[in-house]
């Protein structure tokens, strides 16, 4: 049997004296989309930050494709093929879309004396257009500075950048925090399609959202947190929205009580 793409066991997390997570077991398999749900303060962002290396857990273990790892920073998790999409927070505002999509992968061309050193914006634009086409994502023209985009367009660019970074990797994991929060109808459909396409390529996807219809559309399985504990872990096909809402609000007893 193949190992999960990402597996967390017995994760505890405290902020000072505040307990945010207690003994969380979580996994996502290659090609699987797991919706991570819970009310405000349930611990979703904290768990996502543990997965992305932004927080070190107070206890528990993390495995990537079966191998135990310790993340000291987000670059450690990125090296292990895990990409966190921080919505629009990590975009460089004055730069255009293609430059933002190319951060860390700039195409350089030779200068007049034969030295490498000029950023080849035209080649980067062409590559970005091809990458977005492949992902089925439409935004604004590549030359538009990100600061001139709408909140929804920025969110799509941030998501596309994460998707591009994992799309070449057979073992990639994509962590999405509220990817449709600022989106209208058409952009939400694009993001749903993008999530499905990435999963079909074998990327493991963790989706934190308050958007239950989005979860029913794209998730294979949902994990529900309530006050820092896991209260449900169930295939979407085996449950119904009322039950999920019950676990989120606490009206329904934990599966693990
Ligand atoms: N930096 C912090 N310092 C202290 N406590 C924190 C910090 N971040 C989160 N918490 C606490 O940890 C718990 C879980 O918060 P977390 O942000 O993970 O919840 P969440 O499920 O993502 O909520 P939301 O849906 O509102 O974003 C809450 O009790 C919160 O107050």
UniProtKB/TrEMBL annotation:
UniProt-listed Pfam families: ABC_tran
Alphabetized InterPro entries for the sequence: AAA+_ATPase (IPR003593), ABC_carbohydrate_import_ATPase (IPR050107), ABC_transporter-like_ATP-bd (IPR003439), ABC_transporter-like_CS (IPR017871), P-loop_NTPase (IPR027417)
Keyword set, alphabetical order: ATP-binding, Nucleotide-binding
Endpoints of the signal sequence: none
Keyword presence, Thylakoid: no
Coiled-coil annotated residue ranges, if any: none
SMART domains associated with the record: AAA
Presence of the UniProt keyword ATP-binding in the record: yes
Gene Ontology MF terms: ATP binding; ATP hydrolysis activity
Residue stretches making up the ABC transporter domain: 6-252
UniProt superkingdom: Bacteria
Name used for this protein in its record: Sugar ABC transporter ATP-binding protein
Organism: Actinoplanes aureus
